[in-house]
Design goal:
Elements lengths: L4 E5 L3 H10 L4 E5 L3 H8 L8 H7 L6 E4 L2 H5 L4 E4 L5 E2 L4 E2 L2 H13 L4 E4 L7 H9 L4 E3 L9 H6 L4 E3 L4 H13 L7 E3 L2 H32 L3 H9 L20 H11 L7 H21 L6 E4 L14 H11 L4 E4 L7 E2 L2 E3 L3 H7 L2 E3 L14 E2 L8
């Protein structure tokens, strides 16, 4: 494959991981409106926590730069990857695709010939809508299945590659992603664009369903005074179920699962369903239960240990523990937060305690979605549902 000039819009987990992967073979320019991210990347410093990205940025031969200016990124690009945020808008009951549409407008003015690859998660039917709006066929949706903190690893060792185009544009995108992969025999599926969009939403909703199932199992065990871990281990010995993605938590959270399940439910507006609504409702019920269990202990001060959803991650957007925190605060209980990734001194009007020892001293109960060895000396204070010590 000839060397290409590639622009990547969005220096988040998806955009940066793809940019680093492709910069091993092509000339990549990453674009973001956040000047801090751009400057860090120019210095070969990762703006997100991802061990593999940090290591690859230090390697020789990686052709990657960054900019805030669309013209610098898009002019002369053979291909543009869009990985901008598409947050869920509860008022519209729909993903907010404004940033994606801004990129398309800029491309129309700067480089309308570039092949467009959408990596942002979008509503079912959105890519076809864009093709019609811009009167072009060279817009390809290719979903990502990346884990926070492991994004580059999952790009380099993909479980599968899904490309929402069955023509030559889709073949080009698949070849590019296969070139970047380090594992062999990666399954590649070419579909129509709308089916690819549905694959992304249904995949994440299945994961949310699995989380909701084991969380409700854990709720039952906790209320009935049963050993939740033993029940889960026994259930998961069935090979059809398997011992994975089964560690109870305070609910599914993070950037993808909450918004993707709600968007899929919105797409079901005129379609009979029970499970999709139940999955979204189950997450709310789980948070209510967790908050109630904490409040029953009569804490004077509740300490929130880490806002992040996963270990080795700096992303706490929509993390489930924030829902617990808000419920506790609504009852008038003081809350302090320990989160090393926060520069601010307050978070949602709660004090951020920078010193871990002071945090442990001040909190009468410590709420931890995931436990670490930092809390070994105060385990008697810790409330968690982390049974297996993994994400």
């Amino acid at each position: 494959m000839r060397r290409k000039r590639i622009a990547v819009a969005g220096i988040g987990y998806v955009g940066l991981a793809n940019a680093v992967m492709l910069a091993r073979f092509h000339d990549v320019v990453a674009l973001d409106i956040d000047e801090k991210k751009v400057q860090l990347l120019k210095k070969k410093i990762s703006p997100i926590i991802d061990k593999d990205i940090e290591e690859y940025l230090c390697q020789e031969g990686l052709s990657l730069t960054a900019t805030r200016y669309p013209k610098e990124a898009y002019a002369g690009a053979d291909l543009v990857i869009i990985a901008t945020p598409t947050d869920y808008d509860p008022e519209r009951n729909h993903f907010d695709t404004t940033s994606l549409e801004q990129v398309m407008s800029q491309l129309s003015a700067i480089n309308p010939e570039a092949l467009v690859v959408i990596k942002s998660t979008v509503p079912v039917g959105y890519t076809q809508h864009l093709r019609q709006m811009w009167q072009r066929k060279d817009i390809v949706f290719s979903p990502e299945f990346l884990r926070e903190g492991k994004a580059l690893h999952d790009c380099l060792y993909p479980s599968r590659i899904i490309v929402g185009d069955q023509g030559p544009y889709g073949q080009e995108v698949a070849a590019l992603l296969l070139q970047g992969a380090l594992n062999e025999d990666v399954p590649v599926l070419h579909t129509d664009s709308t089916e690819a969009e549905a694959i992304k939403l249904f995949s994440n909703t299945y994961l949310a369903t699995r989380i909701a199932f084991f969380n409700e199992l854990d709720t039952y065990a906790e209320v009935r005074g049963l050993n939740s871990r033993q029940i889960i281990e026994g259930v998961c010995l069935d090979q059809r179920i398997g011992a994975y993605y089964n560690n109870p938590s305070f609910g599914y959270g993070g950037y993808c699962l909450p918004k993707d399940t709600k968007q899929l439910l919105a797409n079901y507006e005129d379609v009979p369903n029970n499970m999709m609504k139940a999955v979204v409702d189950a997450n709310r019920t789980r948070k209510d239960h967790i908050a109630e269990q904490i409040l029953r202990r009569g804490p004077e001060v509740v300490g929130i240990y880490r806002l992040t959803m996963k270990q080795h991650s700096d992303n706490f957007r929509q993390s489930s523990v924030q829902g617990i925190m808000k419920r506790i605060k609504a009852k008038g209980i003081p809350v302090v937060v320990y989160e090393p990734e926060l520069a601010e001194n307050t978070f949602y009007h709660s004090e951020v305690v920078k010193d871990l020892n002071e945090f442990k001293r001040r909190a009468s109960i410590i709420v931890a979605n995931r436990v670490s060895e930092d809390l070994d000396d105060v385990l008697h204070k810790v409330y968690t549902r982390d049974l297996f010590g993994r994400d």
